[in-house]
Amino acid sequence: MARPKIALIGAGQIGGTLAHLAAVKELGDVVLFDITEGVPQGKALDIAESGPVEGIDAKLKGTNDYADIAGADVCIVTAGVPRKPGMSRDDLLGINLKVMKAVGEGIRDNAPDAFVICITNPLDAMVWALREFSGLPHEKVVGMAGVLDSARFRHFLSEEFGVSMRDVTAFVLGGHGDTMVPLARYSTVGGIPLPDLVEMGWTSQEKLDAIVQRTRDGGAEIVGLLKTGSAFYAPAASAIEMATAYLKDQKRLLPAAAWVDGALGLNGMYVGVPTIIGAGGIEKVVDIKLNRDEQAMFDKSVDAVRGLVEACKGIDSSLT
Ligand code: A3D
Q1: What pTM, to 2 d.p., does this model score?
Q2: Where is the Lactate/malate dehydrogenase N-terminal domain (predicted)?
Q3: What is the ipTM of this complex?
Q4: For 83, what's the count of Cα atoms within 13 Å in the CB-facing half-sphere?
């Protein structure tokens, strides 16, 4: 059986890390695409040259030609610009919307059967635009943010409780922005929900609130430290987890920016929700019940995403 083909659209910080991870994990052959000449070719060759040392059986190719992504099983999109200190994700909207148009058309014309994972910010609006420009089925176009935001939450919680990150589960819902909704009630340490851990005296509500806020600010914390760009190791690892769930039909229950039509009281929009990812792409949106406070936070987040989608429509008249 032929190896799966993984096309990475954007060969910057995240794109290069994705290529390395996909190769080391032998997920398939990798095509790295970028508009900048030389960069995708150089990164692909560099990773390929690590193959003998790592023992990798995968082909890597760098390209500036969309024809090379033909027949890709998975496309992961990071094309565009990242934030600099002081910028919000929303500041990237105008420039990255134009990039989504070019990328969406490139995927539509060359890899229409792919499972497409968008990472470009502002995430929820860009995945919506990418789906519109590509015309692919909604269940095959998804945004990566929830896995990353939840991973950040899990990391901070594991430090607070002094336990392995593997024993911490966490759920972050809503848009990937300042209004994201870390759900304490659905987050656990060894299966014990966070509110119960507060009651048991293992942590305080104040500490938990601070961790929730640090999770919301997780992207900005890294931007502030790096100064020249945004996070790339954890975002790449998170998208690889989603790609693996699709390629191996794992039926993973992962938070993702998915098309929600019916669940959680929403009628047709992209936003971060719990999903099941398998060979069919987004096979299910899990319709979890929120309490009044959680619903209020989720509604605020949904409104913020709607605002960005409307802004996209104002910029590009072909979007309706
Ligand atoms: P960066 O290292 O700048 O890479 C972006 C690449 O896109 C560059 O190599 C560009 O040459 C390339 N590019 C620009 N325009 C096009 C085009 N039209 N076609 C193909 N390639 C193009 O950025 P990065 O890899 O650090 O980040 C990429 C994106 O991911 C940014 O928008 C970030 O804001 C976003 N991001 C999202 C998350 C989420 O959790 C959703 C996390 C971190 C970064």
Answers
A1: 0.97
A2: 5-143
A3: 0.99
A4: 24
